[in-house]
Specification:
Layout (H helix, E strand, L loop, with lengths): L1 E7 L7 E2 L12 E7 L2 E6 L5 E9 L7 E2 L4 E2 L3 E5 L6 E8 L2 H12 L6 H9 L5 H10 L18 E7 L5 E6 L3 E12 L24 E2 L7 E3 L9 E6 L9 E4 L9 E9 L7 E6 L5 E5 L6 H10 L5 H14 L3 H13 L4 H8 L6 H23 L6 H9 L2 H6 L16 H11 L8 H10 L3 E6 L23 H4 L8 E6 L9 E3 L20 E3 L10 H11 L2 H15 L18 H15 L6 H10 L1 H4 L11 H11 L3 E3 L2 E2 L1 E2 L3 H4 L9 H4 L24 H15 L18 E2 L1 H8 L8 H12 L9 H11 L19 H15 L2 H4 L2
Antiparallel strand pairs: 1-2, 1-9, 3-4, 4-8, 5-6, 5-9, 7-8, 10-17, 11-16, 11-18, 12-15, 12-17, 13-16, 14-15, 18-19, 20-21, 22-23, 24-25, 26-27
Helix pairs in contact: 1-2, 1-3, 4-5, 5-19, 6-8, 7-8, 8-9, 9-14, 11-12, 15-16, 15-17, 16-17, 22-26, 24-25, 24-26
């Protein structure tokens, strides 16, 4: 516990003094002291990550201090009985433990925010692994088993559940067409936890004859018990339909114990048969406010299904975006996902620019989308493959970007020529130095841009046979989609070729002359040893063999990846990503004995880059950052604002826990965050600031710092996202204007009940503590005292905000309880605190 004695004398005036005994940060500052009506009030600036505040008093500084337990202590102040004479006060702060603070920072920086289960596994559980173990996991993603893209179709009995209300006492079960499926262990229970509590249905396990409780009508009169398969017991229901069903054309049962306004959870298990292809099973309660429609045939998970479509080059960019979102939410390799997005945002490419290029040859909009998406997917797939290699270097990643057809198209290298009297396009050489390697105005000039541009002439794209993917010297494919066309122009058109688009070198367009880049330049003195004074001129010889011209580009990327300017710029960007926004490049003098802590960290990263072998290993740089005090302590805690991607993903993760049987307390289809078409006009990420993954127009990438994302309008859209996310699925407003509906689903009550003792379910303080703890783990309990009071008052107030409504009187299985809890969580997640990371 850190102590800062505060002397306070009330007599001839007011006197305030501080003495800091053991501090990493300055002590809390006292903003004011007031005494009125025999009440003394102290106010201070909250201490970061404070777990608690204590106010002690004594009549003289020499006497023993004792804690004032009668006063009221909050996040930023204390009030208590004023003394009759002089009195001395002392303020004590309980700081969050170093490992806990480092762990919270790691969960917010090396992951897209914590899940309740990750908090327990890393920090708060009975055997937490701690910060260092979590960090080591994330630094070595290849050691974490991941099968999201390769999960096989689900086989065997499958569990299905839905939660909501009922308009009456009848349960219905039917298919959307003719066929059969085994069904077993149907339950309807009060509350949000399936299979918990008395089953309101009779003979839901089908161990007794169907009559008299189960009724069969119209297309379902052949439904019967079967011993051919059973989830539990000796038999199940073989649901048999000769045609599609409906509520009046189904298997049904009238159940007792129904009460209007109560919440019910329906659940059952099913097993497909040979006749269930393309069938869906429907189970619902009266009026269909609580229903579930489930595809019966074994199916791939949404991630695996999307991956297969992407791998077959038949996916749209909407599929790629949704796949990205789902990986960010569900992957154990969280840092791996963050670095994938970092690279895509650093080496910018634009899906629409690729569409424009392919529009020269193709006219079908879906085909254009798929061709452009395939380039984006192949680009990030190569980075992902490299990041799984422990000794991956920046050169590896830079070369992958340079060879990416999406990059060749984005900055117009595809049409750049250096032969004859053509003037090379400078776009790629400019952005390669300014944004991808050295940083703006950091060691190069316009002459270097112009000279370098000639080296990239001839880099282009071509459609080749699949076996030649990655071979820049391969001939264009001659395989035709339709060889029977009689029109020669159509027969020989690019659009009639069957193949795959890849990087190509067109030697006839290259400038083969000698090129001298950075002529006579040396590394500035500010870099200090071992770099200062080094010459970094690059002399590329004239070429005589046509295909050798492509070597110009490889010499450039090799040279740029080893320059101290690049080491500095990339280190700065990684520090901005993982620590805070206030790192800069091109400014630090690494010889300065008074160099800032930020400058020292960048310098350490550069040395790790310089001294690793092979040079520039990304993990060695990351190790330096995550070992630094700036990352592990307050410098890395709640210092950044989440981007729209980080905000949406972290919101799902914050409430996502495994409830068993494939159920989670929060989920999404991905498209409800990133959009379901190319434009994604009504997608939450677009509305929060025009963030469209894989389609950034400007080459500088989406902003990493707060000003690019925070305005009145974008904050309103963040609030809309949270409100609709926390709404129950049956809420009429849940769609929030999204195309295709809103599949961002949450069940905070189910989460609460799975994590908190039943004795606390109706305890306003206990419920508040749980959600404050999982949503704001880095704040410290002491800094949440005032907000906790707000939460308790909120839970004890009617939904219209006008009258008292004791939370303890609400039944935990009622709609009123569910609504109150959803509203509380919504308010907390809309607060400024949840925008931070």
């Amino acid at each position: 516990m850190r102590e800062w004695p505060l002397s306070l004398r009330l007599a001839a005036g007011v006197f305030l003094a501080f003495r800091m005994q053991a501090a990493v940060l300055p002590p809390p500052s006292i903003d004011s002291l007031t005494v009125s009506n025999a009440q003394a009030r102290l106010a201070w600036t909250p201490y970061p990550a404070a777990q608690g505040y204590h106010v002690d008093w004594a009549l003289t500084p020499a006497e023993a201090f004792e804690e004032d337990l009668a006063g009221a202590t909050g996040t930023a102040g204390w009030s208590g009985a004023g003394p009759a004479g002089s009195r001395f006060y002392r303020l004590r702060v309980d700081p969050m433990g170093d490992d806990a603070l480092a762990a919270v920072n790691a969960l917010n920086r090396l992951a897209f925010g914590p899940t309740p289960e990750e908090l327990e596994r890393v920090i708060s559980g009975p055997s937490p692994i701690g910060a260092d173990a979590f960090i080591q996991e994330q630094l070595a993603p290849e050691t974490l088993v991941e099968s999201l893209d390769t999960e096989p179709p689900q086989a065997g009995w499958t569990f299905v559940t839905a939660t909501g209300t009922s308009a009456g006492t009848r349960f219905y079960l039917y298919l959307n067409g003719p066929g059969q499926v085994f069904v077993d262990d149907i339950q309807i229970v009060k509350g949000t936890v399936p299979e918990s509590g008395p089953n309101l249905l009779v003979n839901g396990d089908f161990e007794a004859p169907l009559a008299p409780k189960w009724g069969l009508n119209v297309n379902y009169t052949k439904t019967a018990l079967s011993t051919a398969a059973a989830h539990t017991g000796a038999s199940s229901l073989l649901l048999s339909g000769v045609g599609s069903g409906a509520q009046g054309n189904s298997v049904y049962q009238d159940f007792t114990g129904w009460k209007a306004g109560d919440i019910y959870t329906l659940s059952f298990w099913y097993l497909p048969t040979a006749t269930t292809n393309n069938l869906k099973i429907v189970a619902s309660l009266s009026g269909a406010p609580t229903s579930v429609t489930q595809a019966v045939a074994p199916a791939l998970s949404p991630i695996a299904s999307s991956y297969n479509t992407l791998a077959s080059a038949k996916a749209t960019v909407a599929t790629l975006r949704a796949w990205t979102i789902l990986h960010a939410i569900q992957s154990r390799r969280q840092l791996f996902e963050i670095l994938t997005q970092f690279l895509d945002n650093h080496f910018v490419t634009e899906h629409s620019k690729s569409v424009d290029f392919f529009n020269r040859f193709y006219t079908d909009g879906t085909q254009l989308d798929q061709l452009a998406t395939d380039l984006e997917f192949r680009e990030i797939s190569r980075w992902r493959s490299l990041l799984l290699q422990p000794r991956c270097t920046f050169l590896d990643l830079l070369q992958a970007s340079a060879e990416s057809p999406a990059q060749v198209l984005y900055l117009d290298t595809v049409d750049s020529r250096g032969d004859a009297n053509y003037i090379a396009n400078e776009n790629y050489s400019r952005e390669l130095m300014e944004l991808y390697t050295m940083g703006v105005d950091n060691g190069y000039d316009q002459a270097d841009i112009t000279t370098m541009s000639r080296a990239w002439t001839g880099w282009s794209v071509k459609i080749v046979d699949p076996i030649n993917l990655g071979n820049p010297f391969a001939s264009q494919t001659t395989n035709r989609l339709n060889s029977t066309l009689t029109n020669n122009a159509s027969l020989n058109a690019i659009s009639n070729l069957s193949g795959i688009w890849t990087l190509a070198f067109r030697g006839g367009r290259h400038n083969y002359k000698e090129k001298v880049i950075f002529p006579g330049k040396t590394v500035p003195a500010r870099f200090g040893p071992p770099w200062a004074g080094r010459p970094y001129e690059l002399r590329i010889p004239a070429r005589t063999i046509p295909n050798d011209g492509m070597q110009d580009g490889y010499e450039i990327v090799n040279h740029l990846a080893s320059l101290p300017f690049t080491e500095e710029f990339i280190s700065v960007k990684l520090c901005r990503l993982l620590v805070h926004d206030d790192f800069v490049h091109g400014v630090y003098d690494y010889r300065d004995p008074n160099l800032s802590e930020e400058g020292k960290l960048v310098h350490s990263c550069m040395l790790a880059w310089e001294n690793s072998f092979p040079k520039g290993q990304i993990r060695e740089v990351l190790k330096v950052i995550v070992a630094s005090d700036l990352f592990r302590r307050h410098g890395g805690s709640l210092q950044k604002v989440k981007t729209p991607l980080e905000f949406c993903v972290s919101a799902i993760r914050a409430l996502r826990a495994d409830l068993g049987h494939g159920r989670y307390s929060a989920s999404t289809d991905g498209g409800s965050i990133s959009g379901r078409d190319r434009a994604a006009v009504n997608a939450p990420m677009t509305r929060m600031g025009m963030m469209r993954l894989y389609n950034r127009v400007e080459p500088n990438g989406y902003p990493e710092s707060a000003p690019g994302w925070i305005s009145a309008g974008t904050l309103a859209e963040r609030a809309h996202f949270i409100q609709s996310f926390l709404m129950a699925p049956s809420d009429a407003q849940k769609g929030d204007g999204m195309d295709g509906g809103n599949k961002n689903l949450s069940n905070p009550v189910a989460l609460l009940k799975s994590r908190v003792s039943a004795t606390l379910w109706t305890d306003a303080g206990g419920v508040s503590d749980y959600f404050l703890g999982i949503l704001f783990p880095g704040e410290g309990r002491g800094n949440l005292l005032d907000l906790r009071g707000v939460c308790v008052r909120f839970l004890n107030t009617s939904d219209d905000g006008k009258s008292s409504s004791p939370f303890s009187a609400l039944g935990p299985d009622t709609v009123a309880y569910d609504t109150r809890v959803r509203a509380l969580v919504s308010v907390l997640m809309m607060s400024p605190r949840f925008q931070e990371q």
